[in-house]
Description:
The complex is a heterodimer of chains A (224) and B (611). Chain A has 2 domains: 2-106, 2-Layer Sandwich (Alpha-Beta Plaits), CATH 3.30.70; 109-214, Alpha-Beta Plaits (2-Layer Sandwich), CATH 3.30.70. In chain A, strands 1, 2, 3, 4, 5, 8, 9, 10 and 11 form a 9-stranded mixed sheet that branches. A two-stranded antiparallel ribbon of chain A has the order 6-7. Chain A is built from 5 helices and 11 strands. Chain A is of the alpha+beta class. By secondary structure, chain B is α/β, with parallel strands linked by helices. Chain B has 2 domains: 2-230, Cobalamin-binding domain (Rossmann fold), CATH 3.40.50; 258-505 and 541-601, pyruvate-formate lyase- activating enzyme (Alpha-Beta Horseshoe), CATH 3.80.30. Chain B contains 22 helices and 19 strands. The interface between A and B is medium-sized, with 31 and 28 residues.
Amino acid sequence: MRxxxxxxxxxxxxxxxxxxxxxxxxxxxxxAKIPYLLSEGFNPHIKxxxxxxxxxxxxxxxEYFDLDIKPMPIADFIEAMNQALPPGIxxxxxxxxxxxxxALMKVINAADYIFMMQCTGLDLENIAAQxxxxxxxxxxxxxxxxxxxxxxxxxxxxxNAERQDEVxxxxxxxxxxxxxxxxFDEILDVFVQYGINKKYMLDFWRRGNYIRKGEHYYSPLExx
Amino acid sequence: MKNRLFKDILPRVSKPARYVxxxxxxxxxxxxxxxxxxxxxxxxxxxxxxxHLGGKIxxxxxxxxxxxxxxxxxxxxxxxxxxxxxxxxxxxSLETYTPxxxxxxxxxxxxxxxxxxxxxxxxxxxxxxxxxxxRQEDDPIVVAGGPxxxxxxxxxxxxxxxxxxxxxxxxxxxxxxxxxxQELDRKNKLLKLATIEGVYVPCLYSVEYKxxxxxxxxxxxxxxxxxxxxxxxxxxxxxxxxxxxxxxxYMEIVHDRAVLEVMRGCQRACRFxxxxxxxxxVREKSLETLKRQAQAQLQNTGYDEISLTSLSTLDYSGxxxxxxxxxxxxxKLGIGVALPSLRVDAFSIELANEVQKVRKTTLTLAPEAGTxxxxxxxxxxxxxxxxxxxxxxxxKSGWNSIKLYFMLGLPTETVADLDGILELLIKVRDIxxxxxxxxxxxxxxxxxxxxKAHTPFQWSSQNSFAQLEEKRRHLQCHRxxxxxxxxxHSHISILEGTIARGDRRIxxxxxxxxxxxxKFDGWSEYFKFDKWMEAFADLDIEPDFYTLRERSYDEIFxxxxxxxxxxxxxxxxxxxxxxxxxxxxxxxxxxxxxxxxCGDFGVFIDLKExx
Lengths: 224, 611
């Protein structure tokens, strides 16, 4: 059977690179004695694909992977995994998907990032509105061999600001993969352009990954 | 501190996962409830240090088997070091983010001579005085262990004490001794420690030199302190502690797999080999123990590979049944078995195939020298036919690339021996061509021979830089298809040689070189040979005295007072036999060769699985 799992990566693990996360998951599968399936060939590997890649330095509340296993109850899978996972990381939810379901990488096309800041003294709501009113938002982006200028505007779906007690929070909903891949550090660059200095940042993380259909955003567990 | 690191510091450095700790199976003991607090400090980066087996053993034994605690620290990479210095962040332990200065004991693992510059740098980053004599009552006791400490003299003045030999039992006695003598002052604590077998406290010994610069005498300054320091050894490895739950790093490390130590020691009697002498005699684990340890390690780590490690794993008496059992048990889960550097003659087709069933690992063989004559000089009991048979079997079973280790600059080496290396490589490649439809790859790694203390070649002259370079050029001017040669840095080997057979006077050079900015000297991109040579010149110390000079029979060596159990008379006899290319057999098969350890230490060769 093929599973799709939603998991959470805590702040302590934000410095892990994608390959590290893959090794972490594979080792957990072995410790948890999950009946995973192996690929054929000289170098058999576990049939698992991490559908979302967290940038180094960013933690995530809802990340996803797909995995092929011999049939087992989903509740048992979640329990065994959560017992074997290191502190700070856990499986939130899980569902069975069709073996022919399109890969996560192909369907996930939007993500939310949260930026938590100490008091900036800036009118963040106004800045958010200002950014969204632009026709073009240009940033320098590293291309394959050279620096390119990239217009983020078509992929900036929403920006919200709010104040909670002592902190200020900005939420940015952006396009990933298709039609435009907006990287986390590019959003930070836009903020800097509008006077939101990096020194204000207390923490930032990815709140979720979504499948965007028209004006609707679905979780990868809802829309398989 | 942790908050500051996560928010301001670590996002600015490369590979931040090196500096955060919190890995699976990390042990974080209650600071207040623990007796003696020790930090295991590894003078290289995290991914090197976390690959080291000795550290895993010590970490486990202290934390699990005593009421003391041990945490870990590694050398920060230069980008992190710069930020730490700028932001005034002291070097801290990964378990509790405690500055090293707050520990009772800071213990460095010396695996390699040139890591000493990192030791100095780490002490400095911890604001602990670099010289032992400058440390005050509230400074930690700074100790060292590991293979390099079998000649502790070049580093003697930096450390308060050394632990010589197997550490499992010794470290517990050491920490307990400190606990029992907490009320004593530093000097008297050290005096107590010096009475433990295996502990060397340098400040309790004095050295006198002759006019020619060699040693006249080395004397203990206190009648309770032994003239010779005897290494520690653990006789029964089945009963010895071995970690069931080693830490599993989040980031990729150099040896990213479970490790099984199948035995300790080797008595093949290769004359260049330091480990072969200082870790005698051979002590094996039983199959039963190994299977249990493999099961525990894999269950608790989730690794996809298990490595059978020792100085010569193919000599383990139970290697065949062990490999078969591991492959049978774990192969279907996609877990592979790795055999590190194999002995050329012991390699069997069957075993190669067993391992290959699951995962094709790199095949590495070490003929060490290019001709039979030179292999006889170094007592590497391998002949060409063995090597060809091994290559034959490997290519037949589907390996496509073989790596071969050689040394340059061995005693008595001539041009014919160098040409022999090339001829050997061509023959191995041709065997590969015969079996493989794809093009084969033969890689030869050429290290520079460095004579080491406690070996038969401790009397020998080391090749000069000019000689080594000439040999390298000679080999490089022949280009051979599908054969790649890679050379170790000759300058690094020269410096390694100077320190390996150095005495107490070298400490000033090390200090000077560190002041001039030397660190990470084992990393060629950071190695600054010129700075080292400046340091030698500033202090008017001649490196050639330590490297090029052939020693006389009766010279007192700086390391003679370390008792490895192998007699100097045996070593000298081996040295003479080397010069006439006479062989010494393996004492397991041929009977005792009188190296001295078994009688002197009251120990024995411990083979577990012999029929």
